[in-house]
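Next up, sample data.

:::
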Amino acid sequence: MTTPTAAPTTWGDPFPLGLASFGISALVLSTVMSGIVDPAALPAVLPLALALGFATELVAGLVHFRRGETFPALVFTAYAGFWLSYALLVQFYGPMVTAGGAAITGMFLLAWALFTTYMLLAALRTNTTTIVIFVLLAGVFYLAAFGSFLGSAGLGKTAGYVLILDALVALYASAAIIVNTTWDRTVLPVP
């Protein structure tokens, strides 16, 4: 008697999920960073950062790993780590720092800028939309890092406006992938 072999499990494309998770979380955070929304509202961003930015991007990244897609897997799992560490820094650990807070925040942001830069190098082998997302995100991290190091609210606000644009590009890419897949044709081009 032969044991039946289970059919291989197929996994859907998690890329639009990861992009939507990033785009929504980044869009809400960017309104606080840019000053469009009062900075006192920052704690209200943290639940979104944890539930969507962290948890959902982590799921998207793990599915990419399961599918053997290393680049998007690393992108989404690493940035899930960003959202978790950012929420912890803002809510719990940052307020405990009495000396050197701006420097450690600057280093936190600079480390992410460096990571984003080498992910941008990898993205150069993908498509224009993904490249734009990484160029803008690297700009956000560098502006925010140097804004923190220099105590410049202006650089931080500029980072927020760049993040708005980045979030909108990510949301467009997510929409294009899911709409094109659902319609089984190109409705929204992804250059």
The CA atoms of residues 4 and 114 lie 49 Å apart. The helical segments are 15-33, 42-66, 70-93, 101-123, 128-150, 153-183. The domain at 15-183 is CATH 1.25.40 (Serine Threonine Protein Phosphatase 5, Tetratricopeptide repeat). The two ends are 53 Å apart (CA to CA).
